[in-house]
Amino acid sequence: MSKALTRTDFKFKGQKGVYHGKVRDVYNIDDDLMVMVATDRISAFDVILPKGIPFKGQVLNQIAAGFLDKTADICPNWKLATPDPMVTVGLKCEGFRVEMIIRGYLTGSAWRDYKNGCRMLCGNVLPEGMKENQKFPEPIITPTTKADEGHDENISKEEIIAQGLVSKEDYEVMEQYTRALFKRGTEIAAEKGLILVDTKYEFGKRDGKVYLIDEIHTPDSSRYFYADGYQEKFEKGEAQKQLSKEFVRQWLIEHNFMNQPGQVMPEITDQYADSVSERYIELYEHITGSKFQKAGAEDLAARIEKNVTDWLNKR
Fold first, then answer.
1. Phi and psi, residue 181, nearest 5°
2. Which helix (H) or strand (E) segment is 180 a member of?
3. pLDDT grade, residue 290 (50/70/90)?
4. Is residue 104 over pLDDT 60?
């Protein structure tokens, strides 16, 4: 089995602090730059699984970096460089405490709410008579609060502005960027025979300007369907073939784990971790249209430390 990077503890020049997220470790350099390390940790149902997935961090980092480059004409983003396959370095921004989720289709948690009678989602009125995986007449934005721990909560534009989480002016900029980014992501996906179903974007502010931050259009932050067969499966009410980490969630559900009280995390064997790794590589190749090149995995931490240090010394 290949090695996986599940924790980091770097001490970079100018380092002011580090934030360990569910998947990414983010290092603050001189309160000016962020070194974001995409680890091989994997989370589902708001819990980090006990075993890392080899090459997952590289897959996510390289997909996100590529999409940041392909959307840089739409809005400014935080990325400056990718000194290592698992690392992006960029501008430090003050992140907004909301995530902008945009949905083109009725699926996932939105479908579960709809099935239970919900017809108003984050200020959006949902039409009667919709079916699972049906396309919305127009994509809808369903923001959530950004929780440090536990579950994010749905919230409407009006509530965000009323609570002072984001100003009206900044929210409207984020909304405009969200729609334009989703449109571009949808077009790129279509070229690869995929449907970008839904995704999330995070934004921050620096020097009075709104920036796109964090990852974009990865299988961890987005849901993709295969375009081929979508209509037939939809008409038959069958599950869609999809590219996302939904398959991990489904595996956990089959093993009676949804992070509910009393439930026990199933064992993640080396064989299962490797099978998830293969799926992530498959996702990369479908989404990018490029062959995945595995980076050396002997001593991941030492490689990352050297590559980032070299980049910081040259800047």
1. -65, -40
2. helix 168-191
3. very high
4. yes
Contacts 24+ apart (CB under 8 A), 306-313: 307/83, 307/84, 307/87, 308/10, 308/12, 308/35, 308/83, 308/84, 308/87, 308/89, 309/12, 309/13, 310/83, 311/81, 311/83, 311/89, 312/12, 312/13, 312/14, 312/29, 312/89, 313/13
Question: Of the given ranges (55-59, 147-151, 273-277), which has the lowest mean pLDDT?
Answer: 147-151
All residues at 6 or more sequence positions from 300 whose CB lies less than 8 Å from its CB, including other chains: 3, 5, 86
Give whole-number Cα distances, 259 to 47, 151, 199, 256, 263, in Å: 7, 11, 23, 9, 6
Mean of the per-residue pLDDT values for the chain?
A: 94
User: How would you class 220 by CB atoms within 10 Å of its CB: exposed for 0-12, middle for 13-18, buried for 19 or more?
Assistant: buried
pLDDT score of 2: 64
pTM value > 0.85 = yes
Q: Cα separation of 315 and 311, whole Å? A: 6
Of 175, 213, 216, the residue nearest 93 (C-alpha): 213
Residue 182: enclosing H or E segment and its boundaries? helix 168-191
- H/E stretch holding 70: helix 56-70
Q: Whats the size of the chain, residue-wise?
A: 315
Q: How far apart are CA 195 and CA 151, in angstroms?
A: 27
| C-alpha span between 27 and 15 (Å, rounded) | 7
User: Which residue type does 265 have?
Assistant: M
Number of neighbouring beta carbons within 10 Å of residue 251 = 16
Contact 195, 225 (CB under 8 A): yes
Angle between the N-to-C axes of helices 270-288 and 56-70, in degrees from 0 to 180, rounded to the nearest 10: 20
